[in-house]
Design a protein that fits this description.
Elements (H helix, E strand, L loop, with lengths): L1 H16 L1 E5 L10 E5 L6 H9 L6 E5 L7 H9 L2 E4 L6 H12 L3 E3 L18 H9 L2 E9 L9 E6 L16 H21 L5
Parallel strand pairs: 1-7, 2-5, 2-6, 3-4, 3-5
Antiparallel strand pairs: 6-7
Helix pairs in contact: 1-2, 4-5
C-alpha cells in the first residue's frame, strides 16, 4: 500500500517537473521475475524508470549505499520503496543472494549494469552483477534505455524511457561455474540491445 502511494506521488510530481515519454511498455514482464537493466546517467534515474513502469509488483531496487544515508526520513522511504543499498567495489553476497531469491519468487530487480553513472552519456563497461542474478534466478533481462533531451537531466526537460524486448533467460545462462566466455556473450547481448534502443530513438536525444 505504501509502495503504491509513493509511486503514484512520484508519478504526479515527476510529470509536473519533467516531460516523460515511455516507449515499449508492452515489453515489461508482469507474471514472473525479471532483471530490468537500464543505462545510468543521473542520480534520479531510478525514479524515472519506476514512474515509467508505474504499476506492478514492487521491484527490488539496488542503489549505492550513500543514498541510504542522506537522512533518516529518506532512508525509511527508500527501504519501504524496495531500495537496497550496495557498497560499490565490495562483494556483497548477501545482497546478491537476496536479489536472486526475489527474482526466483516472481519479483523484479532494477539494477544498473554499469554500476555507476556515465560522465559523457556513452554506455560504460558493464559489471557482472545483473548477469549473475539473471543466470542464477533463471529469469529474462529487460534492456532499458534512458534518454535525456540534450544528453543531460534538466528540470522541465524531456526524459524518454525505452523498454526493449526481454533477452531470454537461456541466453543469459552462465552455467554452474559461471563461465567467463558466456558472461562476455551475455554482456555483449545487453550492450547491443541498449545501443540499438538509442539508435532507434535518437530523435529524442
Amino acid at each position: 500500500m505504501f509502495y503504491g502511494f509513493i509511486v503514484t506521488l512520484a508519478w504526479i510530481v515527476w510529470h509536473i517537473a519533467f516531460r516523460i515519454k515511455v516507449i515499449g511498455k508492452e515489453n515489461l514482464i508482469k507474471d514472473r521475475g525479471f532483471v530490468l537493466a537500464p543505462n545510468h546517467l543521473s542520480a534520479i534515474d531510478p525514479v524515472f524508470v519506476v514512474c515509467a513502469r508505474f504499476w506492478g509488483k514492487r521491484m527490488l531496487i539496488l542503489g549505492k549505499e550513500e543514498i541510504m544515508e542522506v537522512n533518516p526520513i529518506f532512508t525509511w522511504m527508500f527501504k519501504h520503496a524496495g531500495v537496497v543499498g550496495v557498497q560499490r567495489g565490495k562483494g556483497d553476497t548477501a545482497v546478491v543472494d537476496k536479489a536472486i531469491d526475489a527474482c526466483k519468487n516472481g519479483q523484479g530487480l532494477l539494477i544498473f549494469p554499469e554500476g555507476t553513472r556515465s560522465k559523457d552519456g556513452n554506455l560504460g563497461r558493464l559489471k557482472s552483477g545483473a548477469f549473475v542474478v539473471a543466470s542464477a534466478a533463471n529469469v529474462d533481462m529487460i534492456p532499458c534505455r534512458i534518454i535525456y533531451k540534450g544528453g543531460k537531466m534538466k528540470v522541465f526537460g524531456r526524459c524518454t524511457i525505452v523498454f526493449g524486448k526481454p533477452i531470454p533467460a537461456e541466453k543469459l545462462a552462465l552455467g554452474e561455474q559461471r563461465s567467463a566466455a558466456k558472461l562476455r556473450e551475455a554482456k555483449e547481448l545487453l550492450r547491443v540491445e541498449l545501443e540499438r534502443l538509442l539508435e532507434e530513438n535518437r530523435q529524442y536525444l
